[in-house]
Amino acid sequence: MPPPPRTVVITVPTLILTLSGAAIFLFFLISSLSYPPPSTCTCSTTKPVDSSPSSSLKERISASVEDIEWVKKQIEVNGLRMQDNVLRKGINPRTRAQQLQDLIQYKGISHYEEEEAKNHTSFPCPGELLVEEHHSNYGEPWAGGRDVFEFLAENSHIAPESRVLEIGCGTLRVGLHFIQYLKPEHFHCLERDELSLMAALRYELPSHGLLQKRPLILKGEDMDFTRFGSGFTYDLIYASAVFLHMPDKLVWVGLERLVDRLKPLDGRIFVSHNVKFCSRLGGDECSRRLKSLGLEYMGKHTHDSLLFNHYEIWFEFRRFKV
Ligand SMILES: C[S@@+](CC[C@H](N)C(=O)[O-])C[C@H]1O[C@@H](n2cnc3c(N)ncnc32)[C@H](O)[C@@H]1O
């Protein structure tokens, strides 16, 4: 006997549910197809918030707590710990003196000989600078320059368009970071030491690809700023570990000449370590002298180093008259 024909029983609620599901599906399908293609989009100009680390790079200068956590994690996931720097496969550690001796004796691994030796290097740099002897010129670790930059840039609220003058920029331990950050020609410096200037111009700028920033770095020790030009004001003028090495009289001459070059109210002068050039006059006389120049003392700051147990002391001034 053939099997009885199969009958499919659909109840009314099931039928209604199925039909409404299909209708909703069709509605979304048709409406999605009817959106204009991206090329004809008249979208809002509001950009989505980009929370990737690179999105905040433009605004932030110093490392965030998250940045530090991130780098600690990288050290941890790689299982790294500080090791003795001894001879090992492919690594032959040298002191600066040894490296300089090697450079003189062996001239590096691949090099040109005789006449050719003069024809291939556009801007030959003295060996002492190549082995970075000048990075140890101030006793403190070279990395402290970054701390100073971060403190000054954040506390004077500068932007890449700002103009900055450093008095006594030395080998650009600090200035290098400003030059990197600022627009071309917006970093100026007056420095008296020839060897430091050679290190700055012959090694630091070219080796960091900063020649195109055209910083104006001038040799001088008499606080004469006329050679820096006119018709603009500085947003920041700073002296990092410099005024304490100068006669008080020269510091005052410098300040007097700088007041008109500082942007009124918003511009800042920062002086590191101490302000003995002022306090040695006595409290009242110190305040009177500053006031007569049109300068106002804004307060004392300390700033901790990121990498070593050290803090810098800074004294802040502004020009109170417009
Ligand atoms: C301790 S170093 C600091 C260098 C740099 N500011 C830094 O923080 O790395 C002091 C610098 O001030 C410079 N200096 C001292 N007296 C000066 C003067 N009268 N005019 C210009 N520079 C001067 C020195 O030549 C030296 O480079």
TrEMBL record:
Domain of life: Eukaryota
Alphabetically ordered keywords of this record: Membrane, Methyltransferase, Transferase, Transmembrane, Transmembrane helix
CDD domains named in the record: AdoMet_MTases (cd02440)
GO terms, biological process: methylation
Residue span(s) of domain Methyltransferase type: 165-268
Example GO molecular function: methyltransferase activity
PANTHER family in the record: S-ADENOSYL-L-METHIONINE-DEPENDENT METHYLTRANSFERASES SUPERFAMILY PROTEIN
Protein name: S-adenosyl-L-methionine-dependent methyltransferase
